[in-house]
Design brief:
By secondary structure, this protein is of the alpha/beta class. The relative contact order is 0.12. Bound molecules: the ligand Nc1ncnc2c1ncn2[C@@H]1O[C@H](C[S@+](CC[C@H]([NH3+])C(=O)[O-])CC(=O)[O-])[C@@H](O)[C@H]1O. Belongs to the class I-like SAM-binding methyltransferase superfamily. CmoB family. Homotetramer. One of its GO terms (molecular function) is transferase activity, transferring alkyl or aryl (other than methyl) groups. Its EC number is 2.5.1.-.
Length: 354
């Protein structure tokens, strides 16, 4: 129910789903569940850090934003920032560390204008991942997202979701169960503000803090569904593919990006214990096997558009993510292997039709 304590982001999400429901009744089921999804993320019993994250986002200052370029590799909020706003904003954003997916920049170039003494340098959130590099590998193969309704499953901080809106998507819904990433999205959204309403006159980019499995199964709401960096975390890859398919309209497009290994249609690696130190990695197929999985799950026109080995320049420790990163997870004597002896991370992007 709409009530007084609802945030602006929540209100816009309700309105978007309400509008969707007028065209596609399955969105009513989302509306029914939304209060539960949104209150769970605020519950200290589920997420001990939730109140602290919320407080950090709530205390972010209001800046004079000149413009926002959602289609830039460093997702840039051009705003005027004085020294005290710079200090306050940096400190609050650092309370939302680790920042893994980005990069973002808040602030503009310091020019030699009249208030030079006052104006602070931009804040550059140098994230662990160069998510822009992934986007550059994927975007050329997407065709036009203009006017499309898009779901980004496992969207992290929302970096790619913003880029989807930046290329003209009509509506973007990001889902991810991470409480931290949800609040990172809300922090960036605070600064993006009404720039997100560009072209459509209403807010286009939304975030629901739930896993894919929590969504109503056969919503058929989206023209494009992205699942990037999620499949290998799933115990049952076929269930994941079915759930993705259930969110697509007939003829809609799936963009699937996941870890792969070299090999033929019968090659699949199931790491016995950890993979690159991650303890939640299950199935790493070859590209040929993955094409077979997508076809078995009922997708057609399946094509692999990109394969890339992840470099230690793309995923690395930064000032905004100070824990171990890829370089620490590879064999120090042979960077083609993980420290467990498996092939080093290589990722493929596949596109398929429902
Ligand atoms: N069942 C689930 N449903 C939805 N999200 C999930 C689920 N399980 C985990 N996640 C979320 O999926 C994301 C995986 S990261 C990819 C981010 C971005 N897409 C990227 O392509 O850079 C992995 C990577 O960095 O490789 C995390 O944010 C999880 O919380």
């Amino acid at each position: 129910m709409l009530n007084d304590t609802i945030t602006h982001a929540e209100r816009e999400l309700y309105l978007t789903l309400l509008e969707l429901a007028q065209q596609q009744p399955s969105a009513y089921e989302w509306l029914t569940q939304l209060p539960i999804w949104l209150s769970d993320i605020k519950d200290k019993a589920n997420y001990a850090h939730a109140p602290a994250y919320q407080a950090s986002v709530a205390r972010l200052p209001t800046l004079a934003v000149d413009n926002v370029d959602l289609d830039s590799n460093i997702l840039t909020i051009n705003a005027r920032l004085n020294q005290s706003q710079h200090k306050q904003t940096t400190a609050l954003l650092k309370q939302l560390m680790p920042w893994r997916k980005g990069p973002f920049q808040i602030g503009g170039q310091v020019d030699s204008g009249q208030d030079e003494g006052q104006q602070a340098a931009p804040i550059f959130i140098d994230t662990e991942w160069h998510s822009d590099w992934k986007w550059q590998r994927v975007a050329p193969h997407l065709g036009n997202l203009k006017g499309r309704r898009v779901l980004d499953v496992g969207g992290g901080s929302g970096y790619h979701g913003w880029r989807m809106a930046g290329t003209g998507a009509d509506t973007v819904i990001i889902i991810d169960p991470s409480c931290l990433f949800y609040h990172q999205f809300m922090a960036i959204r605070h600064f993006v503000g009404s720039a997100d309403t560009h072209e459509t006159g209403r807010y286009r980019t939304h975030y629901i803090p739930v896993p894919l499995e929590a969504l109503p199964e056969h919503s058929q709401l989206f023209d494009t569904v992205f699942s990037m960096g999620v499949l290998y975390h799933r115990l049952s890859p076929f269930e994941h593919l079915q759930q993705l398919k259930g969110q697509l309209v007939k003829g809609g497009e799936l963009v699937l990006e996941t870890l792969v290994i070299e090999g033929d249609a019968n090659t699949v690696l199931v790491p016995h214990d950890r993979y690159a130190q991650m303890n939640n990695v299950y199935f790493l197929p070859s590209v040929a096997a993955l094409i077979g999985w997508l076809e078995k799950a009922g997708f057609s026109d399946v094509r692999c558009v990109d394969v890339a080995v992840t470099s230690i320049e793309e995923q690395r420790k930064t000032e905004w993510m100070t824990y171990h990163s890829l370089a620490d997870f590879l064999d120090p004597n042979d960077s083609t292997k993980t420290i467990e002896g498996y092939p080093a991370p290589m990722r493929a992007t596949l596109i398929a039709k429902k």
